[in-house]
Amino acid sequence: MEKNKIYRAEIIAYAGDGSSIARIHDMVVFVPGGAVGDQCDIRIVKIAKNYAYGRIERIFIKSKNRIEPECPHASKCGGCCYWHISYEEELRAKSKKVQDAIQRIGGIAMEPEAVCGSDSIYHYRNKAQYPVGIKDDEIITGFYRARSHDIIPMEHCLIQTELADNLAKCVRDWMTEYHVAPYNENTRSGFIRHIYVRSGFATGQVLLCIVTKSAKLPAVGELIQAARQTVPGLCGIVLNINKKTGNAILGDRYITLWGNDTLEDVLCGNRFQLSPAAFYQVNRAQAEKLYEAALQYAELDQTKTALDLYCGAGTITLALAHSAKEVIGAEIVPQAVENAKQNAKLNYITNARFICADAGQAATHLAEEGIRPDVIVVDPPRKGIDQATIDAIGAMAPERVVYVSCDPATLARDVKLLGEQGYQLKRYKVFDLFPRTFHVETVCLLSRKDK
């Protein structure tokens, strides 16, 4: 195989990052924008030891699953990767992605239950994070090009809410009028880094968070007035101060400019006060289905105790509390723990308590206390569960472990590690909370092998 040479090949599969796969001269070639069944000319752009990267130069036979992208930014923006295939094909790709990981990494040949697709693939996100920059002397917001910090300017996004897009424009216009400069990563000059909008789909409340390098901004009163006129349901405007370099969007300091520093939403029958930092699933309707499956897998009753690791604002914890004798939630973010405690009070739930610690520390501490939960629920970040948490779960020896995952590879790895602790995968189900992107959620049930 030669770099820059064009080869004719068929797209045969999808990769974990949403790109497609062809095989040329017995080598796997990763190709963005392909659909299984496409027959195309592929130019090789990079060759590694065991694989290569290519780009499609021409499609001479289109896949039956290929459609015309509805998003005009689909080929440039790094946010979505599946606008060019049917939603049914996307669901098949995501289900197979999880199944392949479970088999290849976890060593378990098991089919998932029927994939749960989203009722809507448009404007489903309740959280928008717009990077702010400047292009041709104009302030822009949008989303990053794949694998870069190059902002693709965007007025409207098909997966964000129109209210969020309108607020982004409002802040851009205010910045232009009052000469508030965007933050420049290279020179570390300027002020505004991100515009962060969180929406409560059940309540209609909207919270605007502006991520900036400095607490001192001009014309704050004019910003408040413009934002309130743009979104009548606005419940608060918060500044987040982030002086650090790196990819983290939010800093540690918050200043409330107007209204509340949280918004309220309803999930699985519980009301939640959510701060900008609190974890909350971005697709509320699908999250309810995801958590219902987790509750079904947990099989709790009023005699059982549950431990919810990585509990965030307590969304899963409080759902578990309705069925359990007692639930303990653990979370490392102090603000999220305070949110969780407030949310328990807000819903008059008295059988849930929360501790501030990372999952490994919390699980180890509870194991040392002699607490033996009947069920442990984990909903970790993309990196999965660390070894200390795996060991502590094994030491507490719950009857069941319910694993909610946003990354199939780390899920499969952890399922294998939990197997070494005496747990066997019984069933799992794939949920699409992120239509048109490569992200996917999975709920797994693991039970003790001696049960």
UniProtKB/TrEMBL annotation:
E.C. code: 2.1.1.190
Active site: C406 (nucleophile), C406
Binding annotation for S-adenosyl-L-methionine: Q281, Y310, E331, D379
Protein name in the entry: 23S rRNA (Uracil(1939)-C(5))-methyltransferase RlmD
The entry's keywords: Methyltransferase, S-adenosyl-L-methionine, Transferase
Superkingdom of origin: Bacteria
GO biological process: methylation
A GO MF label: methyltransferase activity
PANTHER family: RNA M5U METHYLTRANSFERASE, TRNA (URACIL(54)-C(5))-METHYLTRANSFERASE
Coiled coil: none
Matches recorded under PROSITE patterns: SAM_MT_RNA_M5U, TRAM, TRMA_1
EC class: transferase
Similarity-based family: Belongs to the class I-like SAM-binding methyltransferase superfamily. RNA M5U methyltransferase family.
Pfam families: TRAM (PF01938), tRNA_U5-meth_tr (PF05958)
Stored InterPro entries: MeTrfase_TrmA_AS (IPR030390), TRAM_dom (IPR002792), U5_MeTrfase_fam (IPR010280)
Domain called TRAM: residue spans: 1-58
